[in-house]
Amino acid sequence: MENRHRSESVTIAQSPDVLYAMVSDVTRMGEWSPVCKACWWDDEARGAGAWFTGRNITESRTWETRSKVLVDEPGREFAFAVNGDRTRWGYTFEPVDGGTLVTESWEILPVAEPTYPERFGDRAEAEIAIRADGASKGMRETLAAIKRVAEAG
After folding, report:
1. Its pTM surpasses 0.90
2. Number of domains in the chain
3. Sheet containing 36-41, strands listed edge to edge, beginning at the edge strand earlier in sequence
């Protein structure tokens, strides 16, 4: 189960409500994510159960994913799962002295577990480790960018 969950945190001099509003507006994700360059809502629905599409770009490829909002609690938490049940990304907002502790998390969900050995065979654990390390690096970059934007006003 190692490498199935990662999280990174940063304190941002802004209120939980402001930070939640930034992050839960998925159309802004391209402003700070190093991989997800654009997102759009799939229809007019918002909140838990709503779906959106994201366009991801790396040096080696471009792809789109659909994600389902799992948790939508203003000022507290926003989370979604890629393909509705594969990989969970979440943000929590905790008031602290000097602002808000924002934690971004990434987790491979149980339904996705069997797909790694099916796809990668004996390399499954190595591939999961690569994804986990990439998620950690991306979360640090994303949180730093959110901090810059939020604290700039």
Report:
1. yes
2. 1
3. 5-12, 99-108, 87-96, 77-82, 62-73, 51-57, 36-41
